[in-house]
Design a protein that fits this description.
Radius of gyration: 18 Å
Structural class: alpha/beta
Mean pLDDT: 92
Shape: globular
Number of strands: 5
Low-confidence stretches: none
CATH topology: Rossmann fold
Largest sheet: 5 strands, parallel
CATH architecture: 3-Layer(aba) Sandwich
């Protein structure tokens, strides 16, 4: 049973999801800059960025103390802090909130790490569904190659080494990303993801994203109001 529902606040929540290397961060940045330059009220938040749990997360990863369950709980704590202090207040204030990764990242990664999917979804049941979720769909091998081209080494947890998939970090990374891709694919219909072909040129993807936002959001309602003179 899905306990997560959409909000009824003045603002609109737009999330982007996809594998590492899918280009989603580039796309949400371009969307943010466009909306800002057009004079709309915009707020941006990204995954795993809460100051509240930053040190605990860093220490846990460094000392390899995080089990799949604690990994899930600490990321949910990070999300809950940002949701309470940033996302929800700004939705209530009538902002366009852009999220680089949302709860679906946890649904995919935590399930790939072996956590019970229903348990994970229940953890995030306090949060609202996005008004739009863009999923930047890219074959895992292409996404992996993009990551490896610019990164000589992979971090332990990034490569999924904690799962014991392979003693080779690069092979472990490939297996882990393939598992995450499968979990994302299972969510496309359930959560009404708008799938974007992430193999297309950046400008083509961005044009599609902007057109969809203009179609689904009453953008003029989010214009900054000019201050009246004295």
């Amino acid at each position: 049973m899905n306990l997560i529902t959409k909000h009824n606040r003045k603002g609109r929540l737009i999330a982007v999801e996809g594998l590492d290397g899918s280009g989603k961060s580039t796309q949400v940045y371009l969307l943010k800059r466009w909306l800002e330059l057009e004079g709309f009220k915009v707020f941006f938040t990204e995954w795993n960025s809460s100051v509240l749990v930053k040190n605990a997360t860093k220490k846990g990863k460094k000392l390899n103390l995080l089990t799949p369950t604690t990994f899930s709980l600490i990321h949910c704590t990070d999300f809950a802090d940002r949701y309470e202090r940033q996302i929800w207040p700004l939705l209530c204030a009538g902002y366009l909130v852009l999220a680089d990764r949302y709860m679906f990242t946890a649904f995919a990664r935590d399930a790939a790490r072996g956590c019970d999917p229903e348990w994970v979804r229940n953890l995030y049941s306090f949060a609202s569904l996005p008004d739009i979720t863009f999923y930047f769909n890219l074959p895992p091998e292409i996404a992996i190659n993009r990551i490896l081209e610019g990164r000589p080494t992979l971090k332990y947890h990034e490569a999924g080494m904690d799962l014991g998939l392979s003693t080779d970090p690069y092979q472990s990374f490939r297996l882990f990303q393939g598992m995450i891709h499968e979990k994302y694919s299972q969510m496309i219909r359930e959560f009404d993801f708008i799938s974007i072909d992430a193999s297309l040129p950046v400008d083509v993807q961005q044009h599609t994203v902007r057109e969809i936002v203009k179609e689904k959001v009453d953008l003029p309602a989010f214009k900054h109001r000019a201050r009246s003179g004295l």
